[in-house]
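Lecture 7, part B: from sequences to assemblies.

Below are the input chains for today's worked example.
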Amino acid sequence: MSPVVTLDRVTKSYGELVALDEVTLAFPRGRFVAVMGPSGSGKSTMLHCAAALDPPTSGSVLIGEVDVSGLSETRRTQLRRKHMGFVFQSYNLLPAITVEDNITLPLRLAGVRPDRDWLGELVDRVGLRGRLRHRPAELSGGQQQRVAIVRALAARPDVVFADEPTGALDLRSAGQVLDLLRELVDELGQTVVMVTHDPAAAARAHDTLVMADGKVIEVLDAPTPEDLAVRLTRLTGEPVA
Ligand code: ADP
Ligand code: MG
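Predicted structure of the full complex, as structure tokens:
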């Protein structure tokens, strides 16, 4: 089976600054991949390019077998809506509408009728059945992030990209969100790519990419948190939290 997303010599520059430097990578289906590295190493830029949110300066990005690098913004948006889900550190829920409406909004914007059975299954899985009519502010941070995960999965995307999804959560809620992401991979065959600062979070993934200076410098197969902490300390010269 072809990879979900492939980056082929992808470079992203902002003026003189090279945020992503000729990165070649493939994200296989059904894997949970963590992306680590010091602040400013290009993790978010890589995620945005892989997710077709940002066009690369050079190189190609393939969604399945479709090269999206040369496509118009409109066409890229269509492909992104169909194939990609996103989870952000700050949840990005709309405060004025209910949990249920937050979950279905992207589908409605895309003119797609929500699949009620699928949404019901997701809502039960994340334990939010009783919260659908609440507004986001009435939920804990962990619950809000679980709403964002359901929203990301609503259109049955090929891949979910998560940029520091546990960065704003306490330890216990972070653990629940990570368990949920892992469960989606193991039980639903979902592909998840997650940027994280936390070696314990990365240890829940199958593979870990380590980035530095806009390049992927290591691909590790199921590293332990201790191993990751040592590698990151070597990169930054500081112990990681
Ligand atoms: P990370 O997520 O690993 O912390 P980023 O991908 O956000 O790193 O950033 C990589 C580099 O690109 C940094 O030096 C950052 O300042 C720069 N950068 C990111 N986005 C922009 C932008 N929109 N304009 C200018 N520079 C940017
Ligand atoms: Mg970032």
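Note for the exam: The mean pLDDT is 93. Keep this in mind when comparing with the next example.
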